[in-house]
């Protein structure tokens, strides 16, 4: 590829803006996200308050966007939601353990390897990249969890989000979730 062709690709396309969604879609996305994040936070408060554990990690906010706001996306399906977080957490913990003396290497290795593994296992879930990164850049409490981080929060949290998504996303006739389980 020649330089002018390469640079011209950066202009984007002429497809225009994304389509608007209905008010109903906006409301149901809001309701789902509110209830999903609230459920994770409530379980966290109920069972883990007072411990150096947390069920809530930042990447769940991005997962909420997908499972409540883009319910038909292949990236939002249960296999991707749960599998993407689990695999990415495992990769993140391994990268922290192997490369923590070199944080820049551990961070890059965790995210890149998580993406490659999610692709290879058909569990691509973009928030998984953040889950892997959190395992590396997280607090000492996160690091002290070790492989427990894979279970708590990276498996239990997405399972709670999934349960709420299945319940809420099927209330309106205009929505159906999941499209596929596995």
Describe the structure.
The chain is mainly alpha-helical. It has one domain. The protein contains nine helices and no strands. The longest helix has 26 residues. The relative contact order is 0.18. The model has no long low-confidence stretch (mean pLDDT 94).
What order do the helices and strands follow?
HHHHHHHHH
H/I helix tally = 9
What's the Cα radius of gyration?
Answer: 18 Å
β-strand percent reads under 5%
Task: Describe the sheet with the most strands.
Answer: none
The domain tally reads 1
Shape: flat
- Percent helix: 55-70%
Low confidence ranges: none
Structural class: mainly alpha
Which features does this protein show?
182 residues, mainly alpha, 9 helices, 65% helix, flat
Briefly characterize the structure.
With 182 residues, the chain is mainly alpha-helical. The chain has helices at residues 3-8, 23-48, 59-69, 78-99, 103-121, 127-137, 140-145, 148-151, 156-169.
């Amino acid at each position: 590829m020649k330089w002018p062709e390469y640079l011209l690709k950066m202009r984007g396309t002429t497809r225009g803006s994304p389509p608007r969604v209905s008010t109903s879609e906006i409301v149901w996305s809001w309701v789902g996200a509110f209830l999903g994040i609230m459920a994770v936070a409530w379980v966290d408060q109920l069972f883990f308050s007072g411990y150096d554990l947390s069920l809530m990690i930042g990447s769940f906010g991005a997962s909420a966007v997908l499972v409540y706001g883009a319910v038909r996306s292949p990236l939002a399906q249960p296999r991707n939601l749960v599998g993407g977080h689990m695999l990415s957490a495992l990769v993140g913990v391994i990268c922290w353990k192997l490369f923590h003396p070199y944080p820049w290497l551990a961070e890059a290795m965790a995210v890149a390897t998580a993406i490659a593994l999610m692709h290879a296992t058909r569990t691509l879930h973009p928030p998984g990249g953040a889950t892997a990164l959190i395992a590396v850049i997280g607090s000492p409490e996160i690091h002290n969890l070790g492989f427990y981080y894979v279970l708590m929060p990276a498996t239990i949290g997405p399972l709670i989000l999934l349960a709420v998504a299945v319940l809420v996303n099927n209330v309106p006739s205009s929505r159906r979730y999941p499209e596929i389980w596995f």
